[in-house]
């Protein structure tokens, strides 16, 4: 796990990433910062679309960006997420599913807000009883 000092720095990276959010409809910006095994940080922000369903969350933007840059799924050390919320912001269900598959269940997730509130958790804690790749390894027979 990374130290609390690193959490603060990673949360500040998420605050910086939030500045790039494309949010013409909701005005609700979210930033994410994904720490890879080499110590590099990959920024993500939410990107809205008028059709809504093509909108992409900050967490998925950061993860997809890191993978597109050549980092392997499961090689990430931590993810921080920040929003302008009363308490620490939490990822949506779709982001939690993507995090499970591409980050791993034990990866630390640091939830924060612009007021400095912080909550530390893991992907597994965010998505208990998750359906993942291992569930596809043993298909059940209908006979």
Automatic annotation (TrEMBL):
NCBIfam families in alphabetical order: cyt_deam_tetra (TIGR01354), PRK05578.1 (NF004064)
PANTHER family, A to Z: CYTIDINE DEAMINASE
GO MF terms held by the record: cytidine deaminase activity
The protein, known as: Cytidine deaminase
Class of this enzyme: hydrolase
InterPro entries the UniProt entry points to: APOBEC/CMP_deaminase_Zn-bd, CMP_dCMP_dom, Cyt/Deoxycyt_deaminase, Cyt_deam_tetra, Cytidine_deaminase-like
Species per Swiss-Prot/TrEMBL record: Paenibacillus puldeungensis
Cofactor: Zn(2+)
UniProt entry keywords in alphabetical sequence: Hydrolase, Metal-binding, Zinc
Domain of life per record: Bacteria
Boundaries of every CMP/dCMP-type deaminase domain copy: 5-134
Reaction equations catalysed: 2'-deoxycytidine + H2O + H(+) = 2'-deoxyuridine + NH4(+); cytidine + H2O + H(+) = uridine + NH4(+)
Signal peptide (residue range): none
PROSITE patterns: CYT_DCMP_DEAMINASES_1, CYT_DCMP_DEAMINASES_2
Known role: This enzyme scavenges exogenous and endogenous cytidine and 2'-deoxycytidine for UMP synthesis.
E.C. number(s) listed in UniProt: 3.5.4.5
Similarity comment text for this entry: Belongs to the cytidine and deoxycytidylate deaminase family.
Keyword rRNA processing attached: no
């Amino acid at each position: 796990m990374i130290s609390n000092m690193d959490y603060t720095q990673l949360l500040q990276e998420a605050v910086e990433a939030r500045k790039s959010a494309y949010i013409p409809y909701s005005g609700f910006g979210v930033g994410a910062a994904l720490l890879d095994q080499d110590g590099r940080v990959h920024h993500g922000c939410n990107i809205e679309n008028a059709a809504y369903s093509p909108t992409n969350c900050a967490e998925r933007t950061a993860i997809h960006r890191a993978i597109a840059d050549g980092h392997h799924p499961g090689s990430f050390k931590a993810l921080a997420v920040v929003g302008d919320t009363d308490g620490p912001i939490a990822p949506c269900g779709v982001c939690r599913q993507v995090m499970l598959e591409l980050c791993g269940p034990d990866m630390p997730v640091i939830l924060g807000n612009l007021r400095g509130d912080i909550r530390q958790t893991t992907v597994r804690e965010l998505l208990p009883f998750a359906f993942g790749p291992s569930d596809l390894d043993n298909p059940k027979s209908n006979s």
